[in-house]
Amino acid sequence: MLSSSSPFVYSLILFLSLFFLLLFAPQILPFKKHQQQELEQNRQKPQSLITPQDELEDLHLFHQAVLSASPASSKISHLGTVNPKPKIAFLFLTNSDLVFAPLWQRFFQGNDHLFNIYVHADPFVKLSAPEWSVKANFIPAKRTARGSPTLISAARRLLANAILDDPFNLYFALISQHCIPLHSFNHIYTSFLGDPSSSSKAFLTQKSQKSFIEITSDSPHLHNRYVARGEGSLLPEIPFKQFRVGSQFFVLAKRHALLVLKERKLWRKFRLPCFDLDSCYPEEHYFPTFLSMKDPKGCSHYTLTRVNWTDSVDGHPHTYHAPEVSSDLLHTLRKSNSTYSYFFARKFSPDCLKPLMAIADDVIFRD
Ligand SMILES: *[C@@H]1O[C@H](CO)[C@@H](O)[C@H](O)[C@H]1NC(C)=O
Ligand SMILES: *[C@@H]1O[C@H](CO)[C@@H](O)[C@H](O)[C@H]1NC(C)=O
């Protein structure tokens, strides 16, 4: 019986298969095509390196810092008897070894109680301990990457930790591992905060303290940078005519550091990943754009960190190597067209440490 019915069964199965194939094929095929398109889009869609968890932790940290500095909880008012001095917080943002630590150590030497050091070291890179004996606070760090808003987050984390750690930090200098000082500590300190030996408490009223940050709209690629996240992506918060560029490394007065930590509106835009990675330098835009909107008169509009953009390649400035280091170079790098000469310079390659140490006392720290 089975043998006689099997041709019929086979025909039936064949018929049903064809029937279902024809019935569902129009749905299966477009679905596959749709999936394909989605995959394609995801491949092009830039991914954010900042997780919601990171975002929450940062928000909490910034909030704590702002609270700690509010007049009601300010620790300064409770320290009447001692005579503490205002300090400069040096914020090292790095993703490689601090090879210039010995030079910085000599810079800091003899100035305890006038500075604090904070380091944000990319946890995805294994660093060796810096060769200095000064006390440095390695703050809880998160991944950083070029061309992403992670560099804004890292700078804000440094500001927040420094504010929380010591209420006497009144100036905040952002430094990279490739930066060197161009003057003595005393020269730089006095320029920001006045003579450290005077007992004036004028510093406690921070109202007029100025920030030193480059703010300009004079850049040939400004529009590309404005639309790096897509046409209109920064609107309505940031019209193109208010969009600014400036150098990544700045010195902020405390009142501006606090404004930056309170800021949420522009951050929501600047944290978006870029489509155009060649024009993506969020950290060079977020701080200058925000401060130029908030307090243009309170900012220098020029930077104190000298950088050489001649023949720059792929957004990287000229990197100095050992044979270029000389007292002439150091003197040239200090020269500026602003009220102050340059205080810091970048970028220096690790092989410069030796020749820089050799001329440190006679050239760099002699003002
Ligand atoms: C800037 O870098 C260029 C090479 O890219 C070099 O020729 C020039 O001397 C540098 N300028 C200064 C002031 O160091
Ligand atoms: C100062 O200004 C002059 C003239 O505009 C310019 O040639 C020079 O490069 C400037 N120097 C610095 C250090 O920016």
TrEMBL record:
GO cellular component terms, semicolon-separated: membrane; plasmodesma
Entry keyword set: Glycoprotein, Glycosyltransferase, Membrane, Transferase
Classification lineage: Eukaryota, Viridiplantae, Streptophyta, Embryophyta, Tracheophyta
Keyword Cell wall biogenesis/degradation belongs to the record: no
Membrane topology type: Single-pass type II membrane protein
Localization (cell): Membrane
GO molecular function: glycosyltransferase activity
Record Pfam families: Branch
InterPro entries in alphabetical order: BC10-like, Glyco_trans_14
Name of this chain's protein: Glycosyl transferase, family 14
